């Protein structure tokens, strides 16, 4: 009999694995709508949709292993990281999805609120928050929208040797900034930024990628804490912010 593995679970959604099938349970079916539609549109490998019966989406497991994990050294080759950059470029060159992403004003407003919460609640020092808020400013500039994955964490990219076998978790896909995807992919893995950029194959502004590291970390910390995750673990969001000092 197959065992049930809880991959991730919090108040909004849960992902279970039973053998070679992943069961995603989400209280917000619009996220699942986005995930299914995005996977049908993109020019890179994605999991096969086996069936859908709200609130459950069943997906086939991808071959290979995750490119890495936040807070852990990646054992993947430089070529695999470069392949991830090339896959991101294919995605960003694809026709835009019909739905928009967050606007600059929305991101800036949320950033202000999260920074205030971090300081008011004593989660991080005012100096650390202020410094990273200043670094994050470089990301808040106009961009030409691309088809953005929106949550291109290193654990969402699967590889077999040096080849990309697929990318998972498309519920945040939207029109957005290409450099945001590259930043999320390399968050906590700065040593592989050069490999990713080489695979991406065109000039990118590294200061903007570093700005997105700060911005994304500042935005994520409260959600992580409130949902039972620990951003203070080695190599995770607190360390990402401290590295900007």
UniProtKB/TrEMBL annotation:
Q: Which InterPro entries does the record associate with it?
A: AGP_Transferase (IPR051678), Aminoglycoside_PTrfase (IPR002575), Kinase-like_dom_sf (IPR011009)
A Pfam family this protein belongs to?
APH
MF term (GO), any: transferase activity
Which segments does the entry list as coiled coil?
A: none
| UniProt entry keywords in alphabetical sequence | Transferase
Can you give the residue ranges of the Aminoglycoside phosphotransferase domain? 42-201
SUPFAM superfamilies with a match to the protein in the record: Protein kinase-like (PK-like)
Kindly give the PANTHER family that the UniProt entry links to this protein: AMINOGLYCOSIDE PHOSPHOTRANSFERASE DOMAIN-CONTAINING PROTEIN-RELATED (PTHR21310:SF40), AMINOGLYCOSIDE PHOSPHOTRANSFERASE-RELATED-RELATED (PTHR21310)
The name of this protein is Aminoglycoside phosphotransferase family protein
- Which species is the source of this protein? Nonomuraea turkmeniaca
């Amino acid at each position: 009999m197959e065992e049930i593995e809880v991959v991730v679970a919090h108040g909004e959604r849960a992902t279970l694995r039973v053998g070679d099938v992943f069961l995603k349970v989400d209280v917000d079916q619009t996220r699942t709508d986005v995930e299914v539609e995005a996977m049908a549109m993109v020019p890179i490998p994605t999991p096969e949709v086996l069936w859908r019966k709200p609130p459950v989406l069943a997906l086939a497991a991808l071959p290979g292993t995750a490119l890495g994990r936040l807070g852990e050294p990646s054992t993947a080759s430089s070529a695999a990281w470069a392949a991830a950059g090339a896959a991101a470029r294919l995605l960003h060159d694809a026709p835009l999805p019909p739905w928009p992403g967050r606007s600059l004003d929305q991101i800036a407003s949320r950033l202000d609120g999260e920074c205030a919460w971090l300081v008011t609640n004593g989660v991080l020092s005012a100096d650390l928050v202020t410094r990273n808020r200043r670094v994050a400013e470089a990301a808040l500039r106009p961009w030409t929208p691309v088809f953005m994955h929106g949550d291109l964490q290193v654990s969402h990219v699967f590889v077999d040797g040096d080849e990309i076998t697929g990318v998972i978790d498309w519920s945040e896909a939207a029109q957005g900034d290409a450099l945001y995807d590259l930043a999320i992919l390399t968050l906590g893995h700065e040593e592989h930024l050069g490999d990713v950029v080489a695979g991406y194959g065109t000039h990118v502004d590294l200061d903007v990628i570093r700005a997105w590291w700060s911005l994304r970390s500042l935005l994520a910390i409260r959600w992580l804490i409130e949902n039972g995750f620990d951003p203070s673990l080695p190599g995770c969001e607190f360390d990402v912010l401290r590295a900007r000092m």
